[in-house]
Design a protein that fits this description.
eight-stranded parallel barrel, 11 helices, TIM Barrel, 338 residues
């Protein structure tokens, strides 16, 4: 029986050998606080490519040093970081996987020695400091940083760019009425709140022709947050801008009590896929092959993003292929045992 999970998929000019993606997950592993790739990163990401994951997506990689979630985050804010990122993509590509990088800015959730910037001067909680409200000059500089990061990603040979607009980080802060109280062109209406993301997408496209994914928090778990209709609007705008896929996560904008269960975020991907007519990625407690196959076979999403199960087992894709009785290509060194 053919399995949808192991069918190739073409996204613009990039073809993935299967529909399994490693979800971007922060590793906080930069030893010198310089944002540069370490031996750990090479081992971490190459091993998932060896395991035959179709797309290996790097963790949130900061476009500005002051935008890091922690001082140990990966960075793409200066040209000196390109060389090691390019070596990393070469190791991913060596095993037939495609490489992606998530471009990120933490906004009010940043934890580092630099200034904390956000759309509005509202702290996330009592443990984090109140950020400075971004001036239009700050916004322009940040959009320029997305543009420069996209150029560096191209030079480092990444196949796919993902813009991080989820989990309460900077772009999500602009999108949400809970965190964006501005009175200028970047705040107020949903159209204005989308402006920052619109400009970030344009900036990336001006330097890089790779497919663009955008990760969103498709529920804010708050009655005064964005509604489903708002996410339909945002997704339609992204589709019109040429975004290839919306990666549907949830939460993180404000503190909230969430009770996760297997596949709890899949309905977000399913509804936006069909209501907007855009490719989507499903993520969140997708733990086994039968579950992942059901999502794809029933056209609920186009990719499955695997997080913690892939941390526990870099060969999760191989494990799932055995579970579903699918023969996949083995790395040359492992052919005798696969």
């Amino acid at each position: 029986m053919e399995r949808k999970l192991f069918e190739p998929i073409s996204i613009n000019q990039v073809t993935l050998k299967n529909r399994i993606a490693m979800s971007p997950m922060c590793m906080y592993a930069c030893e010198q606080e310089d944002g540069k790739v370490t031996p750990f990163h090479i081992t971490h990401y190459e091993s998932r490519a060896v395991g035959q994951t179709g797309l290996v997506m790097l963790e949130a990689t900061s476009i500005q040093p002051e935008g890091r979630i922690s001082p140990q985050d990966l960075g793409i804010w200066e040209d000196s970081q390109i060389k090691d990122l390019k070596h990393l993509t070469s190791r991913i590509h060596a095993h037939g996987a495609k490489s992606g990088i998530q471009l990120a800015h933490a906004g009010r959730k940043a934890r580092n020695s630099g200034p904390i910037l956000a759309p509005s001067p509202i702290a996330f909680n009592e443990n984090l400091e109140s950020p400075n409200e971004m001036t239009t000059g700050d916004i322009d500089e940040t959009i320029k940083a997305f543009k420069n990061a996209a150029r560096r990603a191209k030079e480092a040979n990444f196949d796919i760019i993902e813009i991080h607009a989820a989990h309460g980080y900077l772009i999500n802060q602009f999108l949400s009425p809970l965190t964006n109280h501005r009175n200028d062109e970047y705040g107020g209406t949903k159209e204005n709140r989308y402006t920052f993301l619109q400009k970030a997408i344009e900036a990336v496209q001006s330097e890089n022709d790779s497919p663009i994914f955008v990760r969103i928090s498709a529920s804010e778990y708050h009655k005064d947050g964005n509604s489903y209709e708002d996410f339909v609007y945002f997704s339609n705008q992204m589709k019109n801008q040429g975004v290839a896929l919306v990666d549907c996560s949830s939460g993180g904008v404000v503190p909230a009590q969430i009770t996760p269960y297997p596949g709890y975020q899949v309905p977000f991907a399913e509804k936006l896929k069909h209501d907007v007519g855009i490719k989507t990625g499903a993520v969140g407690l997708i733990t086994n092959g039968a579950q992942a196959e059901e999502i794809l076979r029933n056209n609920r999403a186009d990719l499955v993003f695997i997080g913690r199960p892939m941390l526990l087992n870099p060969y999760w894709t191989k494990q799932v292929s055995d579970e579903l009785d699918v023969k996949i290509e083995a790395p040359s060194s492992y052919q005798k045992i696969w």
